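Async update (no meeting this week)

Hi team, since we skipped the sync, here's where things stand on the single-chain job. The sequence we agreed to prioritize is pasted below, unchanged from the tracker. I ran it this morning and attached the output directly underneath so nobody has to dig for it. Comments welcome in thread, and please keep replies under the output.
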Amino acid sequence: METNLKKLLTILGIATFSASSAFAATYDNDQDKEGPAKSAVPPAKNQSGEDGPSVMISADYTLWTARQYGLAYAESNFYSPATTTPVMGTVFYPRWKLRSGFKVDLGVYLPHDGWDLVAEYTWFYNKNNDFKSADFLSGQGVSLRTGSTLDSAKSRWNNFYNRIDATLARTFYAGHYLTIRPFLGVLGAWDDQKSNTECVTLVQSLPSNTEVEDLDQEWWGFGPYAGVCPSYIFPPADSQNQWSIFLNSGIALALARSENDAKTSTFNTANSSTTDDQPTTSLYSRSVYWGVDPMLELAIGLRWETWFETNWNFMLQAAWEHQIWLEHNKMSANKQDRIPRGNYSMNGLTIKALIGF
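Output:
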């Protein structure tokens, strides 16, 4: 009897070990079918539903300065070849001013894997009503557009910029105190620019003619848009409050159309005693240019975020932002120079407030 019992226990032990081994092999096979990537997916930061917000709304205040290459209109300290002690002169540009603008966002947190879908609109109006006058003595300035010797010169530049983009993204933890938000989407933008320059030329050391140059550019572009936004959370961080520094970056390639009008007129101020002198037009043309315009943007700043009432959150952040469109300026009144002239950039302070619910 005892011998039979020992044999039975041995058989049960072997059967149990075999079943355990078979179950482990089956589990490993299932894991192999899922793949190591699926079994190690980084956790999403935002979970839609009862444990997190489903919709987010945000507004940004921007205080930016717009600048553009290719708008220089005069330079000072223009001397004759016989001058032995010249003084370094200055190149003059239109006035660059800080201007207010805004952004508005509307987004949803999708129930699929922590994704979010966000649409954003940007409005910026760089309005400069006053001319900026070049500072040089009569006869010591030269026009960078025509090469004429000048008695005086002044210029102004305005532009009105709009942008809409839509992105699909996922914010996930890449560590205990690091989140990353890669995104992709589409971007559309359009702007209208006007440049006005007035130069009084010299003939035999006397003011002779007033050259007036009016340039207008109407531009729009549409194309793919993508980027990545890491955020470094300051420890200690709890489940309700977080401080972090972030770096938002993006790039776009927009198929763009630019329509450029150029008009150059001359008023004979030496022989006219009235202000109604009819101008002589030396150039009046339109150029339509198609191409691919790249856009780069970068923002670095400080963020505070808090969660309350289970599925509500509020975020406040401030950043220094740069945005640049390469080879954007295609305005020119030079008959020999009808090619792109330079980059258009906006940079300054951006303050964002966001609420999710």
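Quick observations from my side:
Residues 64 and 99 are 6 Å apart (CA to CA).
Helices lie at 2-34, 36-39.
Reply here if anything looks off.
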